[in-house]
Write a structure and sequence with these properties.
The structure holds two protein chains of two kinds.
Chain A (H helix, E strand, L loop, with lengths): L3 H6 L1 H5 L5 H13 L1 H18 L8 H15 L8
Helix pairs in contact in A: 3-4
Chain B lengths: L20 H20 L2 H18 L9 H20 L8 H13 L11 H4 L3 H12 L3 H12 L4 H8 L3 H23 L5
Helix pairs in contact in B: 1-2, 1-3, 1-7, 2-3, 4-9, 7-9, 8-9
The chains are: A mainly alpha, B mainly alpha.
């Protein structure tokens, strides 16, 4: 049976579905028997899940105005200057 | 600037035409801003990078040939701009010292103490502003090399190979950094979320 340390080392591949089948069986067997690793795995997955649930930050209103001004300057014909 | 010429729709299966300059600014600015904000951990820096990226994209639109999907192209330009911005800014603030990072990783990787389950559920977290802020702060606290990979992989959902290309890393290095970033975040969040022992 794999050790707790070995389980942690292969957790990324296991969670991302990139671990070979025989190794996955070893991981699953360990998780069934080790409450601490079971909790570690569950919380590792939860970190990923929680991150995916983060909402996008709203654009600050002043940034929208700044971008609009930048686009207007960019689209001004060459040689045209504001007096 | 001349109006961007969009390929005529021919009803085929080719790539969709690129957006116009106005569409780039209107539809893609929030995406660029959020990615830059998480990579740079600074609202002001993210605003500068957002403007820089959108102007770059608009100037390059006439040469965009659609070999890559437009969002992928936009991601690449944003990541490059954020990295360039950071290099100019230099390492003015290190979020964790090397010693602190080693301590976190050692604790997470060797785990001498039993791990307790967390009392948080994803369904609750999405409604909880305090939890969102907590996670955002934890991400911002990651050292930059780890934060870049984590944001691109777990927040933006990009494949490891693509992240490796963007950051000049092997896939193995991307996976190693991603794993360590997740462990660091787990360690940072655990004190807030662990169930209290009976």
């Amino acid at each position: 049976m794999i050790t707790c340390r070995q389980l942690v080392e292969c957790l990324c591949d296991y969670v991302d579905g990139e671990l070979p089948c025989d190794r996955c069986d070893e991981v699953r067997a360990h998780l069934c028997e080790c409450p601490s690793c079971h909790a570690h795995h569950a919380t590792y997955v939860l970190v990923i899940r929680l991150t995916q649930l983060l909402p996008a930050a709203p654009m600050p209103p002043h940034l929208s105005a700044r971008l609009q001004a930048a686009l207007s300057r960019e689209q001004r014909p060459p040689g045209e200057h504001i007096v | 600037m001349d109006e961007v010429k969009r390929p005529a729709a021919e009803g085929g299966t080719g790539p969709p035409p690129p957006p116009t300059a106005e569409e780039v600014f209107r539809d893609y600015a929030p995406r660029v801003y959020n990615l830059a904000r998480r990579m740079l951990s600074s609202d002001a820096d993210a605003e500068d990078v957002t403007q820089d990226v959108l102007l770059q994209v608009v100037r390059k639109l006439p040469t965009f040939r659609g070999e890559a999907a437009f969002p992928t192209w936009l991601h690449r330009i944003t990541v490059n701009a954020a990295l360039t911005h950071r290099r100019k800014r230099a390492a003015r603030d290190e979020h964790l010292t090397r010693e602190a990072l080693d301590t976190v990783l050692e604790r997470e990787e060797s785990r001498h103490e039993p791990v307790r389950p967390w009392s948080v559920a994803p369904e609750e977290a999405i409604l909880d502003r305090e939890t969102q802020d907590l996670i955002e702060r934890a991400i911002a606290g990651l050292p930059e090399p780890y934060r870049d990979v984590f944001v691109l992989a777990d927040v933006e959902g990009l494949p490891n190979a693509e992240i490796g290309e963007m950051l000049g890393l092997s896939v193995a290095a991307v996976k190693s950094r991603l794993h360590r970033a997740r462990l660091m975040l787990r360690g940072a969040l655990a004190p807030h979320f662990e169930e209290v022992s009976a």
